[in-house]
Design brief:
Layout (H helix, E strand, L loop, with lengths): L1 E5 L9 E5 L2 E5 L8 E5 L2 H32 L2 H32 L3 H33 L7 H27 L2 H5 L1 H22 L6 H33 L15
Antiparallel strand pairs: 1-4, 2-3, 3-4
């Protein structure tokens, strides 16, 4: 970003932001000789900064997934509280990124590749924020059942699902950053691993629910399993945004309404 200072003729400018093309002009009120500072920022630079913030948000969500699953596994109420509080940082990033995207759309009028990137980032930003909310759900449920004696086998499956979801988010973010279509499409196979673990969860849950002392705990774990599964689904959705960015066509990697023939 280059910078130049221009003298202002006549009275001082009102404080504000003026845009001409990709020039950002910041004017300070005061004597005429104080002038204005013009920042010349290409849209490519603005997009690079925005994508870096999106990746930062993504890494925080990955950390939240890891923390939420660990809090569940270790029945760590304090860690669960940290995950819940950490979501405020994710929300702040989400709002800042959303605001920046809307500003670029309104003020720069991007087209073609730049427009696709902004629209893809808008969707990914929301998917990451929703995944962060899912971590809060897991953390809160962990706090509610921290005094219960859990079923080790069921917890083991949930931890496996959580590890898979964390891996999927990492792959999704890396594929988006590298513009890696093959990496994005590999998320479908990783998601199938979560689905298989979820089926094992359901099979074990039948036995757990037969024990009265574990019924409440088991019901809450159903929500945890569903939440982890949805985080994996959102990672696939991020992969679909990578495909859209690269091909200019949106397509779902899997279509539940038209399953493939066996």
């Amino acid at each position: 970003m280059s910078r130049a200072t221009y003298g202002a003729a006549g009275a001082g400018w009102e404080t504000g932001l003026l845009r001409s093309g990709y020039e950002v002009v910041t004017c300070t009120p005061g004597p005429a000789d104080r002038g204005c500072t013009v920042f010349l920022m290409a849209i490519d630079e603005a997009l690079d900064r925005l994508e870096a913030e999106l990746q930062q948000e993504g890494q925080r969500v990955v950390s939240s997934v890891r923390g939420a699953v660990r809090a569940l596994q270790e029945r760590d109420v304090e860690l669960a509280g940290e995950v819940i509080a950490f979501d405020d940082d994710i929300d702040r990033l989400f709002l800042a990124i959303e605001g920046s995207i809307k500003s670029l759309l309104a003020l720069q009028g991007p087209v073609a590749r730049d427009l696709r990137l902004l629209l893809a980032m808008l969707h990914v930003n929301l998917l990451l924020e929703r995944s962060g909310d899912g971590c809060v759900t897991i953390a809160k449920l962990s706090q509610l059942v921290s005094d219960a004696d859990p079923d080790p086998a069921l917890v083991g499956v949930l931890v496996e699902m959580g590890d898979r979801a964390e891996e999927m988010l990492r792959v999704a973010l890396d594929s988006f950053a590298r513009r890696d279509l093959a990496g994005a499409e590999s998320l479908v196979e990783l998601d199938e691993l979560i689905d298989r673990a979820n089926r094992r969860f359901v099979e074990r849950l039948v036995d757990v629910m037969a024990e009265p002392d574990l019924r409440e705990w088991g019901l809450r774990m159903v929500v945890v399993a569903r939440t982890i599964e949805r985080i994996g689904d959102r990672a696939v959705d991020i992969g679909e945004q990578t495909a859209y960015l690269l091909t200019a066509e949106f397509r779902e990697f899997t279509d539940a309404s038209h399953p493939a023939a066996p």
